[in-house]
User: Fold this.
Amino acid sequence: MPRLHAFELLPDAAGQEAVRREWQALHDAGLPSQLEHRGTTNGPHLTLVTAPALGPDDDARAVDLLGPLLPIEVRVAGVALLGGSRVTVARLVDVPDAVVRAVLDLRREVEDTQHPGWLPHVTLGRRVPRASVPEALAALGHADVVLRLDTLRRWDPDAGTVTTL
Assistant:
């Protein structure tokens, strides 16, 4: 399977810290957490599109569609469990309608997107045993968080680069 290129929105410093606190809570509970992900690009983010390739036209389209909307405030609420016997634990993100429209417009033009539609979420932990979900929920609590998303970036795994757009 090819490594996937991506467009992502990043929270400001306060938002990064809020998400990292949730990563820490899972870690402190002895559960898998994004805190353990040592990749150079690992950080709190909201993925917009993933595809085997993204070109300069896609970059320009992303900037045109999303740039004018930044910064935006979003509410991180609820928990999603994605997967089978081991799940990804994520917080769902409520985004303004204008952002949803922009992301869907962007996705429509990108070839070979990896998932239909868009489920805005922030990943907290991957490969959490399903039997440990109650512990994960207890560690995370239920308080909503407001994040200010202020940066659009592009991840190119082939070149190993992250570019702020």
Remarks:
- Helices lie at 13-28, 56-66, 97-109, 133-140.
- Strands lie at 5-11, 46-51, 72-83, 86-94, 121-129, 145-156, 161-164.
- The chain is about 30% helix and 35% strand.
- The two ends are 26 Å apart (CA to CA).
